[in-house]
Amino acid sequence: MAQALRNASRKDAAVGQEVLDRVQAVLESGLSDLSRPSVTLAYAQSFDGCISEGPGMSTAISNRESQVLTHELRAIHDALLVGVNTVIVDDPRLNVRLASGPNPIPVIVDSNLRIPVDVRLLKTVEPRPLVVATRGACEEKQAALVDRGAEVLCVDAAADGSVDLDSLLLSLGERGVRSLMIEGGAKIITSVLAADLADQLVLTISPQFLGGMRSVESLAGRGCDHRPELADVFCRRIGSDLVVQGEFLRSAHARR
Ligand SMILES: NC(=O)c1ccc[n+]([C@@H]2O[C@H](COP(=O)([O-])OP(=O)(O)OC[C@H]3O[C@@H](n4cnc5c(N)ncnc54)[C@H](OP(=O)(O)O)[C@@H]3O)[C@@H](O)[C@H]2O)c1
Asked: Ligand 1 pocket, 111 CB below 6 A?
């Protein structure tokens, strides 16, 4: 039995390494474009495509082996982005704890600075979290966040008033960020897919049904004139989860 468990964990480690190698290859292929970071969309969902049990609910979805892989992925990216709702709901630390390697820069998109000043990631010493708002965001809140150790970056607003992700990617590129991992939640994933900004996907699928909040909202009416599609899809079991990695077609074509 003990031998079977050791073999199983060796097998999971090998799958994890294969995923990391594939992700790294895509990251390196994007290094010639220094104007914006290479974007990896990486999140966990249930069999029925849910990211949590419902709005405002924090739901542990992936198993230990996939969580380790997530932390290894964090360690090979320069920055790690989430939406402000994820910070409010999950209070994540956005650092590397289950693997070894450097912490990425935490990036929170938060148009109107709704982020509470007492969240855990603002206590992170290194690297300094970057809170991204739209121009004209409350100056008092900006000062309070800087006081708590964050940096506030104001960028252009998109037509709906949210952070314009294209402008953000360019600003991150100017700061030397070459690789960006985006973990969620659903609104951010949807915006990234609709704007065709992701280069690759690492999706963990847990064999359970949540009947909750969908990972991807409707793309209709978002000016999305394409159907996001992956090329060269890799799929393996990791523990009881499935892990899927692939490069988005736009990115794959741009390389050829
Ligand atoms: N399973 C997983 O892997 C995973 C990972 C992360 C999160 N989650 C879950 O996801 C849920 C939160 O997801 P969510 O969809 O409610 O929110 P979210 O994507 O975490 O954050 C969305 C918020 O970010 C702000 N934002 C600013 N610019 C944006 C842009 N260009 N596009 C989209 N949003 C922008 C908006 O607030 P303002 O308008 O105020 O700026 C928006 O409401 C939680 O339940 C969390 O537990 C799951």
From this structure: yes
Task: Please give the pLDDT value at position 34.
Answer: 78
| Burial degree of 46 (CB within 10 A; 0-12, 13-18, 19+) | buried
How many C-beta atoms surround the C-beta of residue 13 within 10 A?
15
Count CB-CB contacts under 10 A for residue 133.
25
Give residue 221's pLDDT: 81
pLDDT for 126 equals 86
In eight-state DSSP terms, residue 179 is: E
SS3 153: strand
Q: Could you tell me which of 15, 2, 1 has the C-alpha nearest to residue 239?
A: 15
The residues spanned by each domain of the chain are 8-255
Neighbours of 220 (CB within 10 A): 7
Q: How far is the CA of 165 from the centre of ligand 1 (A)?
A: 13
Q: How far is the CA of 82 from the centre of ligand 1 (A)?
A: 7
Q: Is the CB of 239 under 6 A from ligand 1?
A: no
Regions of the chain where pLDDT drops below 70 = 1-8, 31-32, 125, 251-256
| CA gyration radius, the chain | 18
The pLDDT of residue 31: 67
- The H or E element that residue 73 is part of is helix 64-75
Sign of CA dihedral 64, 85, 97, 12: positive
**Domain 8-255 is of which CATH architecture?**
3-Layer(aba) Sandwich (3.40)
| Cβ of 163 less than 6 Å from ligand 1 | yes
